[in-house]
Amino acid sequence: MKKTIHHIAFLTLLCSLWAFSPCVSLSQESTTTSAVGAANADGSRFVQLTMNDGTLKFGQLIEITESEVVLEIMGLGITRIPKYLVQALTSEMLSEADQERGFGYISNQPSRYFFAPSGIQLKKGEGYFQSNVALNSISYGFSDRFTGGVLLSVVGAGITAKFGGEVRENVHVSVGGVAGMDYYGNLDRPLVLGFANVTFGDEDKNVTINLGIGNSILNGTSLDFNALSLDSTIVSANNSYQTNYFTATHEIENRSVPVLLNVSAMRPLTANRWFITENYLVVPWQRTTRNELDPTVQLSYNSYDGSTAPLPYWSQNYFGSSNPGGAISLGIRSYNQRSGWLWDYGLAGVFADGEGFPVPWFSFTLEF
């Protein structure tokens, strides 16, 4: 198990370092007609337009609107090209910054990875709906520093909250939590996870270190063998065995408190596609309490050797594990500028109790 954890940690470190290695960050600002006019004060607006499929178009730039680029192309005349089909616009008369504006864009969802939060907040009034059918969430920026949301899944529902902001250039810090309850009453209490994280980088390329701790999870209960009293003994007629009757007055409750370390990162691959890695290590911290039984439990035990030794192990097992577990995931985020939908897809390797198995991931997101 220790080797598995070391391998996971090493892979996580490699993925995070690669994601945060130097790369070109693209801007999301929109090029306006006035900006182009200023850059072409001498009246020359001959430009080269690069389409998403790599084809080139050359012509006189007439204007750029919110949705399209208008060129006058020799032999075709006035041509209107939807902006979502355009990868870049270049001209000797435009500065590098002006050439990039309006066609590349930063990540539309810098506040999260696949699911884990970053230290970057949604802006006030921004929000999104994310779903992979089984798990659905809505998040909304109530202010530039506070983001709240709701979760709705096939097994339960919950709420989310995150407070934070930029503490210095390219360093964001946030604290928050997730709380949820299942529909079926299998949990003895709501599950709550609090976290604090720090994000290094900008909205397009960053790495986040996240530390969280949850409330206790019931692993199981067992009778306290030191609190058993012998009530009576009945010996069989042929003296071949005897039955002992006990009263149990206390039980031992075993709980674990999950401590979570998350390392996530993203970096752009193209103007509308990003690499994402999201990785977890969960270490259960064990906690044991002794509770009085009310009412007490009456039990019997047949002992063939005539002994009145304590009863065999008796317990009620719930869920949870005393062994570390976690996951490492790699994937892609793709943005469709025409529809406005974001698509996340990837593969996670989950490990628990010394065993591992792959889990596919996908989700789609719509901003509002």
Give your account of this protein's structure:
This protein has 368 residues and is mainly β. It has 2 domains: 282 residues, Porin; 68 residues, Roll (SH3 type barrels). Helices cover 8% and strands 57% of the residues. It is built from 3 helices and 20 strands. The protein has a 12-stranded antiparallel β-barrel with strand order 6-7-8-9-10-11-12-15-16-18-19-20. A 5-stranded antiparallel β-sheet has the order 4-3-2-1-5. It is elongated, with a radius of gyration of 30 Å. The N terminus is likely disordered.
CATH secondary-structure class of the largest domain = Mainly Beta
End-to-end C-alpha gap: 44 Å
Radius of gyration: 30 Å
CATH superfamily of the largest domain: monomeric porin ompg
Fold-level CATH name of the largest domain: Porin
Helical residue percent? under 10%
Q: Tell me which CATH architecture of the largest domain applies here.
A: Beta Barrel
Spatial order of the strands forming the largest sheet: 6-7-8-9-10-11-12-15-16-18-19-20
Strand proportion: over 45%
Q: What oligomeric state do the depicted chains represent?
A: single chain
Average pLDDT: 78
Main beta sheet: 12 strands, antiparallel, barrel
How many helix segments? Answer: 3
Shape: elongated
**What is the number of domains?**
2
Q: Would you list the SSEs in sequence order as H and E? A: HHEEEEEHEEEEEEEEEEEEEEE
Uncertain residue segments: 1-11, 22-42, 97-102, 303-315
Structural class: mainly beta
Number of strands: 20
Outline of the structure:
This protein has 368 residues and is mainly beta.
